[in-house]
Write a structure and sequence with these properties.
36% of the residues lie in helices and 21% in strands. By secondary structure, it is α/β, with parallel strands linked by helices. The chain has one domain: Glutaredoxin. The strands form 2 sheets. Strands 2-5-4-3-7-8 form a 6-stranded mixed beta sheet, covered by helices on one side. Strands 1-6 form a two-stranded antiparallel sheet. β3, α3 and β4 form a beta-alpha-beta unit. α3 packs across α4. The longest helix is centred in the first third of the chain and has 17 residues. It is globular, with a radius of gyration of 18 Å. The N terminus is likely disordered.
């Protein structure tokens, strides 16, 4: 029985080592992410992101849920910019700026759009959003269409979520 127990512990340890990092692992830092070429918007610098809450959304032009999230994220970026929110959209389907532009214009996107991004967390499903706190540490990892996402942004900004106006 002792052999079985130690084998199970070894297996669980191996799985933990090779599993992708999650939001619960607060050691994931924004500084570990590398962004592709800026297609639209402001160049990504330390000055742009220092002491800011940063949202990074992985999206694609051929992804209907991604396209659906663009106007919501554009509105959030505009409304919360003065509170310290920076939004970066990482287009992840190798689309050209010409392919992106009509979608971004329709959604009124004014935040930075890059041609891809890479980091310590594997992104295999779109859309996917990461929220980094003012300290640069990962605070949320999930869907931009989830109820938890705006709550995580407000919490990172240190503000209360505004009640739904419907």
């Amino acid at each position: 029985m002792k052999l079985l127990s130690s084998s199970v512990v070894a297996l669980l340890t191996a799985i933990a080592v090779i599993s992708p990092l999650s939001a619960a692992d607060k050691k994931v830092k924004l500084s570990e992410w590398k962004f592709g070429k800026v297609a639209f918007g402001e160049k990504i610098t330390n000055k742009l992101t220092k002491d800011k809450v940063v949202v990074v959304e992985f999206w694609g032009v051929n992804c209907p849920p991604c396209i659906a999230s663009l106007p919501h994220l554009a509105e959030m970026a505009k409304e919360k910019h003065d509170q310290g929110l920076v939004v970066i959209g990482a287009e992840s389907q190798m689309s050209t700026p010409a392919q992106m532009k009509p979608l971004l214009d329709t959604a009124k996107v004014q935040y930075t759009i890059t041609q891809g991004a890479e980091g310590p967390i594997q992104v295999s499903q779109l859309p996917r959003v990461f929220v980094f706190g003012k300290d640069g540490l990962l605070a949320f990892d999930g869907s931009p269409l989830s109820e938890e996402f705006p709550k995580a942004v407000d919490e990172a900004l240190g503000t209360k979520a505004v009640a739904d106006k419907h």
